């Protein structure tokens, strides 16, 4: 039951809410306090009597003393908003239990018992979308991290592993499909049009991997034969009208299954694999054993409604959840501090999968862009934490870019240092050693040391220290020798004022200016605070290409002559490094322009160098368009702000837009020619056609900065000619930033065309919220009143408000209105969906790095939130940390 449906809780009763004392600060949970659970629960049988408004749950647990745990004469079963309707021990009903903060405490005297508890929940009242909830007439569950305790009393912690037997019964007309983990072992008819199914999962698992789905669904079905010749039945379950949009998800799943066999030697281990798409979901997807539950956004695709980016995201997330079957499910986490054990590793696995399918360089550039724009700001702000945190109050707040993406980078560094083959030996050993266990990050590191032959002694610091290391690189040339001096510095972060140096693997190459070639790439591991390396045999000063492939998640700080960057942008044979040089060139210019400022001469030189490099990118016919597109993308405003101690978002925005305008003026003919060439390429999902679509919209957005009227016409043409969502969305994105009649017409057209298609309408909300239009705030204020807007659907909330919070010129409006809008949202959403509400705190939390006027306004909004009564644990923790 959702706690807010219980009339005795203060939330529901205004008088009590007034009288209730301010909730005390939720307790801090520390990694060092870990103790094994005193009881094992080898088996659990669950019996569900299903209903949208009332589902009765009977749980039968077999428990036995855990020889590794402390001796206890009670057992604590977690509960959140549950009431025990009946309790029995070894078949005898008892009322000898007590409740403590929602948990049920039972006395247990012997070494082994059977506990039976009955309880019930109201799935329709569950707006938090944790536990058992109703979405669009179907029932589904989300248990990670601590949702199972909202369904049944249970030791809801990842180190308690049980085999699950699940029986469910309900009206056939309402719930024709009944799914749970593992294999279906029996099914049948019951009286009054009811039916039932029984599922058994032979693999012991923690409660967070439990899942149940009941609804009116249809499946796209297929089959996969594993490397040992077993046949696995595959199903993607959706609402009937969505069936035509499931092909890509199914093909992605089959590719993922094959790839994991070939690349990591991992085979699937059940007779069936089910994916269910649900429209109301807090995150992207969930890896429940044998029954993955997905946000519809990451399942449904066809050319008419999904962009190329959507296709890629679906492939990556289907892979991610599937890969969890080994990295997460077969080997799970001992406690939630180890979250990166499964998430960092699985993100790396999904990145490598997508890299193999989509091409290494472009995927790497995109992954690094995400890291820099989302994780770097986290690492330099008040919410910074190590990939293995030391403490938390609410674990939902730690599903972060740090745990996921930086976690992946840390494991990627091990792979870089070991090489792919030794790395594979390490992962083989890890899976062998810990199969069926709840493991720790330390277990993974040890397996890498033993299996891959690495010494990770000091490297462990990457797990315990937060903050993005800064590495300065100075190259000196004397006589025939080039000397490289590398220095590292890890900035202080909350709770960690002083840092120690960490091993940093840097792939680097020195280019000969004359020949344009280098003598081979080297891997240098910077172990100490400072290292000097001499390279002999250079009669002229070489050009340094460093951190190639982004071999370490650090920020490189160096003074490079502009000519060297132009050289690398044109000559580097590492595609990633080439894009880096291009970025460095632009970042250097914009940071100078938006910071201390540039005189006319400096500005002119900077702009010329960028125009020269961009012209080379546009002219180079050896480049394919997907890569050309990456080279055309200007660094984002958040990343630019990140390069400055204190940033003025208004100036950054003006300078970046100004540069775009200037480039469009200089390179207008080329950009128009590119748009025309790309527009002639017919739609397909081939790399060439996808690349053409990418550069087409990029060219358009430059042109829009240069000549808005002409671009408006071109964008309207692109919109009208579009036979796919990539072109249509791209055109509408550009139009949304312009003040033209075409903007209004096409927005109306888009809405009418896709009315009723939630995912497409989400795009319609987002495009307006992230637009360059000066009145974007007004648009967002109108959209929150739109009949299709609701706080109950996380996708819709994110579509409007995350897009807005990521739109610097609007979010950082000097009036502070953007901050107020987000704070109002947090306060309105918190009682409905605390997990989603808490995610909006981070943008306000960056105040320390923003110029003083805006910073004060941001802080004031955080204080307004903090003062509100009855805040959730999720939001309270994030606001508290942000105010610091
Ligand atoms: N383990 C999932 C992410 C996830 C986490 C929490 C959730 O609760 C709402 C849902 C999903 C993954 O990494 O894909
Ligand atoms: Zn994951």
From TrEMBL:
Residues 467-558 form the Peptidase M1 alanyl aminopeptidase Ig-like fold domain. It comes from the Bacteria. Residues 1-30 are annotated as: Disordered. Residues 1-11 have a biased composition (Polar residues). Its cofactor is Zn(2+). Residues 57-209 form the Aminopeptidase N-like N-terminal domain. Keywords: Aminopeptidase, Hydrolase, Metal-binding, Metalloprotease, Protease, Zinc. Its EC number is 3.4.11.2. Residues 249-459 form the Peptidase M1 membrane alanine aminopeptidase domain. It is an enzyme of class 3 (hydrolase). The keyword Zinc applies. This is Aminopeptidase N. It comes from Pelagerythrobacter marensis. The lineage of its organism: Bacteria, Pseudomonadati, Pseudomonadota, Alphaproteobacteria, Sphingomonadales.
């Amino acid at each position: 039951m959702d706690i807010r449906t219980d009339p005795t809780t203060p939330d529901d009763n205004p008088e009590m809410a007034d009288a209730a004392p301010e909730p005390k600060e939720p307790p801090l949970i520390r990694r060092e306090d870990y103790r094994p659970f005193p009881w094992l629960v080898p088996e659990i049988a669950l019996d569900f009597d299903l209903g949208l408004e009332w589902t009765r749950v009977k749980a039968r647990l077999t428990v036995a003393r855990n020889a590794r745990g402390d001796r206890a004469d009670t057992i604590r079963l977690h509960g959140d908003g549950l009431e025990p309707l009946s309790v029995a021990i070894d078949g005898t009903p008892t009322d000898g239990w007590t409740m403590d903060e929602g948990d049920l405490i039972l006395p247990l005297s012997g070494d082994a018992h059977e506990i039976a508890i009955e309880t019930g929940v109201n799935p329709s009242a569950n707006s938090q979308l944790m536990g058992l909830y109703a979405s669009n007439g179907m029932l589904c569950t989300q248990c990670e991290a601590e949702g199972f305790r909202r369904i049944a009393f249970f030791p809801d912690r990842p180190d308690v592993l049980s085999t699950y037997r699940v029986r469910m019964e309900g009206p056939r007309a309402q719930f024709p499909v009944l799914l749970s983990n593992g294999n279906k072992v029996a099914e049948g008819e019951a009286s009054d049009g009811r039916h039932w199914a029984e599922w058994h999962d032979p693999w012991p698992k923690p409660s967070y991997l439990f899942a149940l789905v009941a609804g009116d669904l249809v499946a796209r079905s297929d089959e996969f034969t594993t490397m040992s010749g077993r046949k696995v039945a595959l199903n993607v379950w959706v609402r009937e009208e969505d069936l035509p949009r499931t092909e890509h998800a199914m093909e992605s799943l089959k590719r993922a299954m094959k790839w994991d066999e070939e690349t990591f030697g991992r085979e699937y281990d059940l007779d069936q694999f089910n994916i269910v798409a649900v429209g109301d979901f807090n995150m992207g997807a969930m890896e429940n054993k044998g029954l993955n539950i997905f946000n519809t956004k990451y399942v449904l695709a066809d050319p008419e409604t999904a962009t190329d980016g959507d296709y890629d995201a679906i492939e990556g997330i289907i892979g991610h959840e599937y890969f969890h079957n080994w990295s997460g499910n077969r080997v799970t986490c001992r406690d939630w501090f180890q979250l990166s054990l499964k998430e960092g590793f699985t993100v790396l696995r999904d990145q490598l999968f997508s890299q193999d399918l989509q091409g290494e360089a472009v995927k790497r550039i995109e992954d690094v862009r995400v890291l820099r724009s989302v994780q770097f700001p986290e690492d330099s702000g008040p919410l910074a934490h190590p990939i293995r945190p030391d403490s938390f109050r609410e674990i939902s707040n730690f599903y972060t870019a740090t745990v996921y993406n930086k976690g992946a980078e840390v494991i990627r560094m091990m792979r870089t240092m070991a090489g792919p083959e030794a790395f594979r030996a390490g992962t083989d050993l890890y899976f062998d050693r810990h199969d069926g266990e709840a493991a720790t990050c330390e277990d993974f590191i040890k397996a890498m040391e033993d299996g891959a032959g690495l010494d990770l002694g000091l490297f462990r610091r990457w797990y315990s220290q937060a903050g993005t290391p800064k590495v300065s690189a100075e190259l000196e040339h004397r006589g025939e020798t080039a000397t490289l001096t590398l220095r590292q510095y890890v900035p202080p972060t909350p709770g960690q004022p002083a840092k120690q140096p960490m091993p940093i693997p840097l792939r680097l190459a020195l280019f000969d200016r004359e020949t344009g070639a280098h003598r081979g790439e080297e891997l240098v591991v910077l172990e100490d605070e400072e290292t000097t390396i001499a390279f002999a045999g250079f009669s002229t000063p070489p050009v340094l290409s460093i951190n190639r492939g982004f071999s370490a998640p650090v920020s490189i700080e160096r003074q490079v002559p502009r000519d060297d960057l132009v050289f690398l942008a044109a000559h580097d044979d590492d595609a990633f490094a080439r894009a880096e040089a291009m970025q460095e060139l632009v970042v250097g210019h914009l940071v100078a322009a938006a910071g201390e400022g540039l005189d006319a001469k400096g500005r002119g030189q900077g702009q010329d160098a960028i125009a020269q490099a961009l012209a080379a990118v546009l002219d180079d016919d050896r480049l394919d368009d997907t890569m050309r597109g990456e080279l055309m993308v200007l660094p984002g405003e958040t990343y630019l702000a990140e390069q400055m101690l204190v940033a003025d978002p208004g100036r950054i925005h003006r300078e970046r837009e100004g540069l775009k305008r200037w480039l469009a003026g200089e390179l207008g003919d080329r950009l128009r020619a590119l748009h025309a060439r790309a527009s002639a390429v017919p739609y397909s999902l081939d790399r060439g056609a996808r690349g053409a679509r990418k550069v087409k919209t990029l060219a358009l957005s430059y042109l829009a900065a240069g000549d808005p009227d002409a671009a408006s016409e071109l964008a309207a043409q692109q919109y009208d000619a579009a036979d796919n969502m990539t072109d249509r969305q791209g055109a509408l994105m550009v139009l949304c930033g312009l003040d033209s009649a075409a903007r209004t017409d096409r927005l109306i057209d888009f809405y009418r065309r896709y009315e009723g298609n939630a995912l497409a309408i989400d795009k319609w909300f987002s495009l307006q919220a992230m637009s360059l239009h000066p009145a974007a705030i007004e648009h967002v204020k109108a959209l929150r009143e739109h009949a299709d807007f609701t706080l109950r659907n996380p996708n819709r909330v994110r579509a409007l408000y995350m897009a807005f919070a990521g739109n610097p010129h609007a979010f950082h409006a000097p009036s502070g209105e953007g901050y107020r809008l987000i704070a109002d949202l947090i306060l309105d959403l918190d009682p409905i969906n605390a997990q989603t509400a808490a995610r909006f705190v981070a943008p306000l939390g960056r105040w320390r790095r923003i110029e003083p006027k805006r910073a004060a306004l941001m802080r004031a909004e955080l204080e307004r939130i903090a003062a509100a009564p009855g805040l959730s644990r999720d939001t309270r923790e994030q606001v508290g940390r942000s105010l610091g």
